Amino acid sequence: MLQPRLIYRLGKSIRQARYASTTAVRIVEVGPRDGLQNEKQIVPEDVKVSLINRLGRAGLKDIEAGSFVSPKWVPQMAGTAEVLKQIHHSKEIHYPVLVPNMKGLDSLLSLLQSSTSAEPLTDEIAVFTATTDSFARANTNCTVAESIERLAPVVERAISAGLRVRGYVSMVIVCPFEGRVAPAKVREVTQKLLEMGCYEVSLGDTVGMGTPKDWEDMLNDVTGSVNVSTLATHDTFGMAVANVMQAVSMGVRTVDSSVAGLGGCPYSPGATGNVATEDVVYALHGSGYETGVDLTALAATGFWISEKIGRENVSRVGRALRAKQVREQSRQKE
User: Fold this and answer.
1) What are the strands, taking DSSP E only, across 150-227?
2) What tens digit of pLDDT does each residue of 189-224 get?
3) What does the radius of gyration of the chain's CA atoms come to, in whole angstroms?
4) What's phi and psi for 235, nearest 5 deg?
5) Which of 25, 68, 79, 220 keeps 20 to 30 A from 320, CA to CA?
6) What is the spatial distance between Cα 213 and Cα 177, in angstroms, rounded to a whole number?
7) Which is the catalytic residue, given 142, 175, 198, 265?
8) 5-333 sits in which CATH class?
9) Is position 198 annotated as part of the catalytic site?
10) How far apart (Å, rounded) are the C-alpha atoms in residues 66 and 38?
């Protein structure tokens, strides 16, 4: 799931060149994957396709399109292959997908090999692990060490097939099962993912209990051996935007977020949602940073998907913009 994420980048990539400006912040939109995968209802493929296309038109360049996981465990992600085939592909937009194991990678590679699309259906996968054995067992039925051992050949094969690999690490500040997590453990898992070939590692405060001071301490510790570049955050305790701004002030330049605050982690007690992309974009723009995202179009997309799946839009900025539009429309009718 989406976690408050602190992402570290190893080496130079195409994206680093694109986001070299000190005021440019890259937004990774995870709503279509992390957000929708936790909905109780099955979201139709055409709705997922429309959501991804709308997000692209709003200016987002990195959109998680789905997950190659067993439909037995995550039925909401069934049909990811069809979604990848149907979305509007552009050289300017990346559509990473979550791949938890070799079986999932096999499915993705078969899809890519059979595709006749002029543009690649995707050029990136994401893999995930955690800092605590308790959460790792709840999420993947194995220890952290076993998880990393299983991921190594997946990452190696994906890279040899020409795919970029991004790593996610859960529980970087507090684990609901084991309590406070030592920064040294976070650093250890991060380094292992980077060493196996991940170009980024996204570290997540999954239950969202971290404060800006916690994130500052985390950054200071982990960046002693790894270069910091990006962050995304989760809003369970209402601190996500503050944590994002703290990290950005320290040099972080990528933020993971979910339109309308879609999402939540079923394996993490207390994790109720993700930071809304609208709220992050508004805070960044208001602080002088650039994202390339059209906030008005993004907010409209947030309300559209919320209405489609029958849930509340938890974006504070989205609701404020909608209220402003309603007031303006009322004045025009008077």
Assistant:
1) 164-170, 174-175, 179-180, 200-204
2) 989 999 999 988 888 888 888 999 998 998 888 888
3) 19
4) -110, 25
5) 25
6) 22
7) 265
8) alpha beta
9) no
10) 12
